[in-house]
């Protein structure tokens, strides 16, 4: 895939923390980190500009017992710090494969990474660097899906690619329900009214207001990211159009 063949030229990839666990119960699977880095590297080589938002569920799952009984804001801040750990792990894997990368955090930690600055993030992408946006929005009560929609709008991305464990949006979990129906296309309003839960309502509403399509695909399929960025492969497109 050449840059000219790519359907989108600046995109945001949202990867859940759970996707980084591989076969583990929690934590980071080095093999899965390398796998995601390889997918990102393949797209980066085509000249497509990339921003990433990583969840923290893989680490926070291991802390969930410690967080039991905590107030929501404190637990959310712990989750934000987990996303920074994931971002640093992915940065290391990307730079080992020769991809220039910057981590920007919504919570300032100058000795570890850059603070999130919108114009600087855009400039990094224009210079061919992959930008990993960590710590969510920097505020409790908001998910990393909402952070992805917000950062995509701020950095003028043309699409949000939501990497999941299955190849699109279904009306039930296809890993548990054999008759689950898969959707090729959905409107934002369909996702909201049918409560399909591919992203939280705030994230879907933000994407709708910004006119940014959401493409849901499986990160487990080799080469899937390159395929969907080029408009091919198996995915579900969520947009304003029917």
Give a brief outline of the structure:
The chain has helices at residues 30-44, 57-67, 72-96, 118-126, 144-154, 188-193, 201-210, 224-229; strands at residues 10-15, 49-54, 101-105, 114-115, 130-134, 159-164, 169-170, 182-183, 185-187, 214-218, 236-239. With 242 residues, it is α/β, with parallel strands linked by helices.
Q: Could you characterize the architecture of this molecule?
A:
- This protein is α/β, with parallel strands linked by helices.
- The chain has a single domain (10-239), classed as Carbamate kinase (3-Layer(aba) Sandwich), CATH 3.40.1160.
- Helices cover 38% and strands 19% of the residues.
- It is built from 8 helices and 11 strands.
- The protein has helices spanning 30-44, 57-67, 72-96, 118-126, 144-154, 188-193, 201-210, 224-229, and strands at residues 10-15, 49-54, 101-105, 114-115, 130-134, 159-164, 169-170, 182-183, 185-187, 214-218, 236-239.
- Strands 4-3-5-2-1-6-10-11-9 form a 9-stranded mixed β-sheet, sandwiched between helices. Strands 7-8 form a two-stranded antiparallel sheet.
- Helix 2 (57-67) packs antiparallel against helix 3 (72-96).
- The longest helix is centred in the middle third of the chain and has 25 residues, at 72-96.
- The protein is globular and about 50 Å long.
- It starts with 9 loop residues before the first strand and ends with a strand.
């Amino acid at each position: 895939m050449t840059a000219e063949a790519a359907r989108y030229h600046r995109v945001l990839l949202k990867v859940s923390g759970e996707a980084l666990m591989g076969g583990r119960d929690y934590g980071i699977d080095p093999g899965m980190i390398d796998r995601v880095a390889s997918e990102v590297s393949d797209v980066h080589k085509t000249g497509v500009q990339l921003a990433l938002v990583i969840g923290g569920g893989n680490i926070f799952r291991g802390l969930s017992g410690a967080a039991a009984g905590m107030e929501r804001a404190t637990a959310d801040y712990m989750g934000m710090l987990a996303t920074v750990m994931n971002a640093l792990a992915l940065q290391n894997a990307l730079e080992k494969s020769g991809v220039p990368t910057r981590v920007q955090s919504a919570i300032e930690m100058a000795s570890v990474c850059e603070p999130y600055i919108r114009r600087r993030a855009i400039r990094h992408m224009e210079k061919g660097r992959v930008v990993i946006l960590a710590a969510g929005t920097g505020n409790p009560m908001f998910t990393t899906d909402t952070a992805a929609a917000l950062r995509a709008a701020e950095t003028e991305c043309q699409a949000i690619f939501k990497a999941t464990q299955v190849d699109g949006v279904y009306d039930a979990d296809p890993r548990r329900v054999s008759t689950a129906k898969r959707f090729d296309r959905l409107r934002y309003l369909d996702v909201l009214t049918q409560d399909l839960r591919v992203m939280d309502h705030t994230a879907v509403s933000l994407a709708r207001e910004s006119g940014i399509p959401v493409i849901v695909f499986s990160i487990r399929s080799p080469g899937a990211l390159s395929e969907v960025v080029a408009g091919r492969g198996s995915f579900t497109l969520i947009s304003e159009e029917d």
